[in-house]
């Protein structure tokens, strides 16, 4: 608790600094209405860095006005910014503090619900459940039915993940009954979770009925957001019914929608049951393909559930019978890692999972395999590694050299077939002048001077800057930079450099004497202040080095 309060104090201190910054900001966001700030936060919620200034202003305004209700919403907005894990609970505790000051049971309950959701996202299921229970006690004193059943729904999810399926079903049935006529998404989500819980209890027929109802109701209500999940659930349910071919077909159909939602956890579960179905159908290669997908998801996302651990037991046995100690050891290590995560996250549920391999047995098998495997592989591995590294390095260097030469020659050929006058004077973009907030006469005058600047090759002079050119044109840097970018499509430095390089390219094509110049001499010829700046600009513009370009020109003679 002491640590939490220290973090909270530090957080509040940073908010005071943030308030001061906002207070002196030219936009004066702190003086805007809450509705305006909330609207901006909603619009920018997918871009936390841009939304941050509105979130800070919202909370600063609430604090300045001592508005406890808006403070709760202000801290809740911080959770939308997806902060570091260590700050999520700080924001949630701040919500609870402000809500209690308001003495509003709905606000207090909502704050505890938010804290429970934070714990749930961190897979601290028991802590989440404790906060949901507190939230329920406060919300029960109010008339806010939606929030009351939202708490019930979240409590049911915790019960489900802790393996208390009967209790989850009881809560979910209440949610279904309430949301049916009040909230389409709440109704469909509750139905989906109710089907999953019945599946875990082996009530496959009832699960099918619920999934069918969900699909029908989704279409009737014109809400297809949960459709893929009902299909996915029914595919898993068909596996329970031992209809393995139908399970594969149905899950694959559901996965199309789940991938679009980037829901890697349900995607991984789907792959697991497709793999199990192929395994039961004795189609080993297909099963292994999908098991590897589940394992990759575990590697990439760290996602695993206790019931998915059976896959690793299957793989250990499979590679043991295949006399493949390397793969067997790999999956033993993976299963040990799965158990270490599951024992911390799902410690109440893991005791209910039948384990053919317990941790002690796994460590014994792991040690045996490591001793045998390491003796055999150590010398061989060193030798192979050295040879492989040498072959790879040599191959890569040869490949890169050939590839670069091929690309450079292609680029050189493209340059040579261009019309000689193509790059002498950049063509103006035919863009209406009213798109720039500059007087049209001013634009025309500056464009006229630019054309003369280019035709007279004034760009070859050294040390041109935006300030110097603006002064030469009797204009200002703002107008000149906007017009160059608008009509030449480049920023000032790139514009000057490209003019110099285009001039040199044409000169090198036609003048054999210039081709014998060093890079330093070429740099001086084009008005570059240093050789390095010249070679960088040439490479960027022409996409090949000056040396290669000249060498290829000489071959044409």
Characterise this structure.
The chain is mainly α. It has helices at 2-23, 34-43, 48-65, 68-80, 85-102, 105-121, 125-139, 145-161, 165-179, 184-200, 204-220, 227-240, 244-260, 264-280, 284-301, 310-321, 325-345, 347-350, 359-416, 440-455, 466-472, 477-488, 492-510, 519-526, 531-542, 546-555. Helix 11 (204-220) runs antiparallel to helix 12 (227-240), helix 12 packs parallel to helix 14 (264-280) and helix 23 (492-510) packs across helix 25. The longest helix has 58 residues, at 359-416. The termini are far apart.
> Span between N and C termini?
82 Å
Percent helix: over 70%
User: What structural class do the secondary elements suggest?
Assistant: mainly alpha
Counted beta strands: 0
Q: Using only CA atoms, what is the Rg?
A: 34 Å
Order of helices and strands: HHHHHHHHHHHHHHHHHHHHHHHHHH
Averaged pLDDT? 81
Taking the sheet with the most strands, its summary is: none
Q: What proportion strand?
A: under 5%
Low-confidence stretches: 12-24, 348-357, 419-431
Oligomer: single chain
* Molecular shape: extended
- Tally of alpha and pi helices: 26
Short recap of the structure:
The chain has helices spanning 2-23, 34-43, 48-65, 68-80, 85-102, 105-121, 125-139, 145-161, 165-179, 184-200, 204-220, 227-240, 244-260, 264-280, 284-301, 310-321, 325-345, 347-350, 359-416, 440-455, 466-472, 477-488, 492-510, 519-526, 531-542, 546-555.
């Amino acid at each position: 608790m002491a640590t939490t309060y220290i973090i909270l104090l530090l957080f509040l201190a940073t908010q005071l600094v943030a308030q001061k910054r906002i207070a002196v900001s030219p936009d004066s966001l702190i003086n805007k209405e809450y509705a305006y700030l909330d609207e901006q936060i909603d619009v920018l919620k997918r871009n936390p860095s841009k939304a941050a200034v509105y979130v800070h202003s919202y909370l600063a305004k609430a604090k300045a006005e001592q508005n406890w209700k808006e403070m709760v919403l202000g801290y809740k907005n911080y959770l939308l910014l997806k902060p570091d894990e260590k700050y999520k609970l700080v924001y949630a505790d701040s919500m609870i503090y402000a809500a209690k000051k308001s003495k509003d049971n709905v606000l207090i309950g909502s704050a505890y619900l938010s804290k429970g959701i934070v714990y749930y996202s961190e897979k601290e299921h028991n802590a989440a459940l404790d906060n949901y229970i507190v939230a329920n006690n406060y919300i029960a004193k109010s008339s806010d039915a939606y929030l009351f059943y939202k708490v019930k729904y979240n409590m049911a999810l915790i019960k489900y993940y802790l393996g208390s399926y009967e209790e989850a079903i009881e809560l979910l049935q209440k949610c279904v009954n309430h949301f049916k006529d009040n909230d389409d998404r709440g109704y469909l989500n509750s139905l989906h979770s109710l089907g999953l819980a019945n599946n875990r209890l082996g009530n496959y027929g009832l699960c099918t009925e619920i999934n069918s109802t969900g699909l029908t109701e989704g279409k009737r209500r014109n809400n297809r957001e949960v459709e893929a999940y009902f299909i996915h659930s029914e595919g898993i349910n068909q596996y329970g019914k031992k209809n393995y071919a139908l399970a594969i077909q149905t899950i694959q159909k559901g996965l199309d929608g789940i991938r679009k939602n980037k829901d890697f956890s349900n995607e991984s579960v789907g792959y697991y049951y497709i793999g199990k179905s192929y395994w039961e159908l004795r189609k080993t290669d297909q099963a292994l393909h999908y098991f590897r997908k589940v394992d990759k998801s575990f590697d990439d996302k760290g996602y695993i559930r206790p019931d998915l651990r059976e896959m690793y037991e299957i793989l250990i046995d499979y590679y043991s019978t295949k006399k493949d100690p390397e793969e067997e050891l790999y999956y033993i290590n993976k299963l040990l890692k799965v158990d270490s995560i599951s024992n911390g996250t799902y410690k109440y549920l893991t005791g209910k999972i039948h384990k053919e391999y317990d941790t002690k047995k796994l460590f014994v098998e792991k040690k045996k395999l490591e001793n045998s495997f390491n003796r055999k592989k150590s010398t061989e591995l060193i030798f192979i590694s050295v040879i492989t590294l040498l072959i790879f390095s040599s191959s890569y260097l040869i490949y890169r050299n050939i590839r670069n030469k091929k690309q450079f020659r292609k680029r050189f050929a493209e340059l040579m077939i261009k019309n000689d006058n193509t790059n002498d004077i950049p063509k103006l973009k035919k863009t209406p002048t009213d798109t720039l907030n500059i007087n049209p006469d001013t634009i025309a005058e500056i464009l006229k001077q630019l054309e003369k600047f280019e035709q007279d090759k004034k760009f070859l002079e050294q040390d041109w800057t935006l300030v110097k050119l603006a002064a030469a044109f009797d204009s200002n840097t703002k107008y000149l930079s906007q017009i160059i970018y608008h009509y030449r499509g480049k920023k000032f430095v790139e514009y000057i450099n490209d003019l110099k390089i285009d001039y040199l390219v044409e000169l090198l094509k036609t003048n054999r004497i210039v081709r014998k110049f060093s890079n330093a001499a070429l740099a001086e010829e084009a008005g570059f202040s240093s050789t390095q700046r010249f070679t960088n600009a040439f490479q960027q513009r022409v996409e090949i080095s000056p040396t290669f370009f000249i060498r290829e020109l000489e071959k044409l003679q």
